[in-house]
Amino acid sequence: xxxxxxxxxxxxxxxxxxxxxxxxxxxxxxxxxxxxxxxxxxxxxxxxxxxxxxxxxxxxxxxxxxxxxxxxxxxxxxxxxxxxxxxxxxxxxxxxxxxxxxxxxxxxxxxxxxxxxxxxxxxxxxxxxxxxxxxxxxxxxxxxxxxxxxxxxxxxxxxxxxxxxxxxxxxxxxxxxxxxxxxxxxxxxxxxxxxxxx
Length: 198
Fold this sequence. Notes:
The protein has helices at residues 4-24, 105-121, 149-159, and strands at residues 37-39, 54-64, 75-77, 83-85, 90-101, 124-126, 139-145, 166-176, 182-183. The protein has 198 residues and is an alpha+beta fold.
């Protein structure tokens, strides 16, 4: 699994939330422009422009999760039980900003409230319970992030945009694994020679 895991995660979240909001707000999937969660137009990022009438999902930071690591970060077992030498898994934390831009202020917060409500009820997505989770992504954990006023100001200043109703989520534990593990030589015999020192 390589770098596309970041894009796969964002696409999954966009589609999943769009379907959820459409169902919760009574929007027909056949209705034109029914996508309630969208990505920002790549041609409109300087300064950034958020589409009206939707919630925009925007990746604002990526960092490595260094807390949860295997005891031996370079060894993993193959399907046949033999040890393999691999580069350690990278567990990423994605910071995704959901920005709601609607003509009616209360509609924006209705959409964001639905997102908070949904992730409160389903804070973790796993392959067993969420079949549409992209292949290779074992688990996604959703955690609401509360920014202080100064931090919030820094985010919007960096985006060079006017503040819109928004919420920030930390998407945790996206593992990126070494795709080319090497067989690990094993010690099968130990020769010990004892010498008497006079």
